[in-house]
Amino acid sequence: GDVGAGEQIFNANCAACHAGGQNVIMPEKTLEKDALEQYLAGGRNEKAIITQVTNGKNAMPAFGGRLSDEDIANVASYVIASSEAGWD
Ligand code: HEM
């Protein structure tokens, strides 16, 4: 996916809860590399992020139908790239 386009999707739709790759609702479930490996269903990969963003999980809303499949794929690429880079 397009990481640059995904950054814009992230800032508009995800940053309210995940600014800087953190999690204001469930503090341990961050978007950092280690947390994605530990908590994300299916492991730290784009497909697993696409699934969670599309369907939601617990207090995280579903974005399927609100964001296009392309936007969701791009934001997943941005989250993976940022987790690699340490969200700096
Ligand atoms: C968890 C991505 C929007 C609240 C996660 C996780 C990812 C993710 C990858 C798994 C993290 C982990 O388990 O360590 C995104 C993306 C978003 C988005 C890409 C935008 C498209 C939001 C919003 C909220 C939110 C707006 C708050 C209203 C949560 C919560 C969890 C979570 C509470 C933990 C869910 C659980 O396991 O119980 N998010 N998120 N997210 N997110 Fe989001």
Quick structural gist:
This protein has helices at residues 3-13, 15-18, 33-39, 46-55, 69-85. It is mostly helical and 88 residues long.
- Hey, roughly how much beta strand do the residues contain? under 5%
Structural class: mainly alpha
* Gross geometry: globular
Looking at how many chains there are and whether they match, the oligomeric state comes to single chain
The helix content, as a percent range, equals: 55-70%
Give an overview in words.
By secondary structure, the protein is mostly helical. It starts with a helix and ends with a helix. It has five helices and no strands. It has helices spanning 3-13, 15-18, 33-39, 46-55, 69-85. Bound molecules: protoporphyrin IX containing FE. Residues 13-14, 16-18, 23, 25-26, 29-31, 35-36, 39-40, 49, 52-53, 57-61, 63, 75, 79 line the site of protoporphyrin IX containing FE.
